[in-house]
Design goal:
two-stranded antiparallel ribbon, alpha+beta
């Protein structure tokens, strides 16, 4: 797994000069659509090279380092493609507006292949079946260096909110202590005393609803349609990960939360890595984490969905 993206640059121009020596002259900057948290740009260089840049006015490079490490983790499995990482950095003075940035390979999207969804289903299954030990045994300093099968070697983000990845040998404990528990605590003001009683009951009895997976899987962590794009070969590429090691069902559940993928994607996935019949029962419980995160990000519009799931399990 590559780790050189930990090298930071203090200015954008220095970073470009190092990446495209001897001098990288930017001749065009185009703001791109999309992105709720960060701004996205296409940089065209005098050499004809194109670079994708994400930036954020917050001087908070950890956000982009975590994203880059997630892309590296996925890339290391040799399964689903991701954009190549060029570097992360900060610029205290560019355009008199301090910001941090992430430079990535610029992807020219192509027409999807006829077997686009089948191929993506097979590749995601292969990623979920890949050995997770290389990722879990990394220790780059200041991260989660403890032992455990589930979690990640560092904390990261889900959207713009922090995501804990403290390692654990128990998937159920990990999901309670690092996923549902923190989100419920942050959303506490939305809940009545009766709601809190049900939430406590759900967390205390989580082992009655979830299972320990037969295999630990590297997860994208935020796998909805907006975080999958068609690459130049007509195959799916993953972007904007919130990676960790957990139960493969989490990724599949997320794909169904906001509309779902075509049926042939799920059929292909099941050919390579069959889902257990009880997956559909657990699906909403896994998506409860995402709905809680949306509640904490965007407000009470998600409260009804959250409480509906809680009551379905323990009401």
């Amino acid at each position: 797994m590559r780790t050189e993206i930990k090298s930071h640059f203090k200015r954008l121009q220095i970073a470009l000069d190092v990446l495209f020596p001897p001098k990288a002259t930017v001749i065009r900057i185009e703001r791109l659509d999309g992105g709720d948290i960060n701004k996205a740009y296409e940089l065209e260089l005098e050499t004809g090279e194109h670079v994708f840049m994400k930036s954020n006015s917050r001087v908070d490079e950890d956000f982009f380092v975590a994203e880059a490490m997630g892309l590296c983790a996925i890339e290391s499995t040799g399964t689903v493609k991701t954009p190549a990482i060029l570097c992360t950095g900060t610029d205290p003075a560019w355009a008199d507006d301090p910001f941090c940035f992430l430079l990535l390979e610029f992807i020219q999207s192509a027409r999807p292949r006829g077997d686009y969804w089948e191929t993506f289903g097979h590749e995601l299954a292969a990623m979920h079946l890949a050995d997770t030990k290389p990722v879990m045994e990394l220790d780059l300093g200041g991260g989660n260096s403890s032992k455990g099968k589930f979690g990640f070697f560092q904390d990261n983000f889900i959207g713009e909110r922090p995501q804990k990845n403290t390692k654990s040998d128990s998937w159920i404990s990990f999901f309670r202590d690092n996923r549902l528990g923190p989100q419920f605590r942050d959303a506490d003001a939305y809940f009545s005393s009766q709601d809190r009683t049900l939430i406590t009951r759900l967390l205390d009895h989580l082992d009655e609803f979830l299972i320990e997976p037969k295999q630990a899987s590297l997860l994208h962590g935020d796998l909805w349609s907006g975080n999958v794009m068609c690459g130049p070969e007509g195959k799916a590429m993953m972007i904007d990960p919130a990676v960790y090691v957990g139960h493969a069902e989490v990724d599949l559940a997320m794909t169904e939360l906001f509309g779902g993928f075509p049926a042939r994607f799920y059929a292909a996935y099941n050919e390579a890595n069959p889902l257990e019949p009880e997956y559909k029962t657990r699906r909403d419980l896994y998506n409860l984490y995402q709905l809680l995160n949306h509640l904490n990000l965007f407000g009470s519009g998600y409260l009804g969905s959250v409480l509906s799931i809680v009551r379905r399990f323990v009401g």
